[in-house]
Amino acid sequence: MPDALGAEFSLVWDLDALYPRPETPEFRRALDDYRREITALAERSDALPPVSSLPHAVTAWVTFLSDYEQAAARREELQSFVGCYAAADARNKTYQRLEAELSSLEPLRARIATNLEFAIKQADDEELESFVAADERLGRIAFFLRECRRNARLRLPKDQELLAADLAVDGLHAWGRLYDRLSGALRVQVMERGEIVEKSPSQVQLDSPQRTVRENNFYASARAWQTIADTCADALNHIAGTRLTLYRRLGLKDHLEPPLRYNRMRRETLDAMWSAIAARKPMLVNYLHRKAQLLGVEKPAWYDLTAPLPQLARPGSSAELSWDDACRMIVDTFERFSPAFGDFARRALAERWIEAENRPGKRQGGFCTGFPVRRQSRIFMTFTNSADSMSTLAHELGHAWHSHVLSEQPYFLQDYPMNLAETASTFAEAVLGEERLRTTDCEAERMQILDHMLSDAVVFLMNIHTRFLFEDEFHRRRAAGELAAEELSELMLAAQKEAYLGALADDGWNPGFWISKLHFYISGLPFYNFPYTFGYLLSLAVYATAADAGPEFPEQYRRLLIATGCRETEEAVAGAIGGDLSRPDFWTRSLDVIERRVERFLELTG
């Protein structure tokens, strides 16, 4: 093992330090122990006394919640562990079966959550507050108990809720697992050195400096994804159809109510964010037009959006970035921001928490997953020797740091909504990007860094807006019936043209984007898109406060991360950095930062 900043960092993670391998009898025993534990807890939850029956209720609930907290943490670890193996070896049938087995236990967890939420819902405000005040242990998790009450309105009557959870194993969630298997097994045929080779989708990059390579890779990928389009359309229709059926039964206003509740944010906040973006987005069209000129085309195509600028670096320099150099740069940058953050990144690398090897057979995308009992994380990605890959690593380490900061809180206060999760990850990217921009003395490199930053802005303000527009319109139309693959492609094309303000070439769009974007198929969370834009813009606002806060800022940021587990979104932000998220002018501050970057880029490339 190299020392913290030695010559090499491992590209392959260490999972053996967590549990025995999934194929072993030892892991089977751990899984069976959890099965017995969660089954017994589900039965106990059926008999919890009413919250109002003080003092008897306090003793029973404190004991139950303590036991449930331990079981919930073990569940998270088991799911994370199997998920890591399944992501790294996408065709392995054993790991797929274990994922399905763990999914089959989810109705027991849902039964417990349902019983808790209904019991708390039945108490009036005064009874609940008396209950919370009756024991210090309940007082510590008061936010969690009040969240149970708020979430109860998204529950069907108890018998129906339990039935829906049972059916979801082989229904809603099975469609999500099917997509994972299809996408994991997919292979793309690309030309390399005169030979056709097969690669996993995550290995096929669109950031080559050669436009013909980018174009060929794009169309090769599109052809491969098209082979599973009809099955993916089935999965997407049935995931959304199941949700819409539940929403009708609940009498919800529309399909945005659940994702807003899960993100602990108000509709006014979402509307304010998108309205501010719509007013300022033309600045990105100016950036795209200039980048097209630099690439020698009239308008960019989809496969030009992440292309590097033509090489303007010093003689002998290389556009490729080694894994070791990327790791060193991240550790050094995080350490200058906060010694504790830098030490944490160094530990994650030294203890091999990260799987980044570029090899076939891996699932696409990247993630950070937690092991709360051990207070560790694991990061999955594919490193492609690029600045974009380095940013991905910083992004996922931001998630891991967030979990680490919350690890000393009660387990029920370690759960944070996705929009605030993406604030922590994109903030880590901002720290890295701004430090690179500040320290470079090379004008060409400064242009490349700004280009990368603005490419990110296009993703968050245009690409993810595309996903939101597509998913919003798809849910509206799905209420009237299923949509064929061709109709989904038409919806996607319309969403892209609106979100990108028509800035791409006429033949440069990606109507099949809905097939390859795994976020649409995540069955556990609806609308897995707008939280990224929220987190990106909020992270810019948070970073902008760092200069005023001075050396106190790392601790201020730490308090924000802790608040994400125990406050509503608007309250967490207002308490940490101030401002009203439901007003467009809050978001304008972050958009000003992006506009200044556009102006600087235009000056440097003019």
Please outline the helices and strands.
Elements: H1 25-46, H2 56-88, H3 93-104, H4 106-121, H5 125-133, H6 136-140, H7 142-151, H8 158-170, H9 172-185, E1 188-192, E2 195-199, H10 211-226, H11 229-250, H12 257-262, H13 267-280, H14 282-295, H15 323-337, H16 339-350, E3 354-355, E4 367-371, E5 376-380, H17 387-406, H18 418-439, H19 443-478, H20 485-499, H21 513-516, H22 530-544, H23 546-549, H24 553-563, H25 569-576, H26 584-605
Textual characterization of the structure:
Helix content is about 65%, strand content about 5%. The two termini are about 50 Å apart. It is globular, with a radius of gyration of 24 Å. The chain is built from 26 helices and 5 strands. Residues about 1-5 and about 315-320 have low confidence and may be disordered. The strands form 2 sheets. The chain has a 3-stranded mixed β-sheet with strand order 3-5-4, with helices on both faces. The chain has a two-stranded antiparallel ribbon with strand order 1-2. Helix 4 packs across helix 7 (about 140-150). It has helices at about 25-45, 55-90, 95-105, 105-120, 125-135, 135-140, 140-150, 160-170, 170-185, 210-225, 230-250, 255-260, 265-280, 280-295, 325-335, 340-350, 385-405, 420-440, 445-480, 485-500, 515, 530-545, 545-550, 555-565, 570-575, 585-605, and strands at about 190, 195-200, 355, 365-370, 375-380. It is mainly alpha-helical and about 600 residues long. The relative contact order is 0.11. Strand 1 and strand 2 (about 195-200) form a beta hairpin.
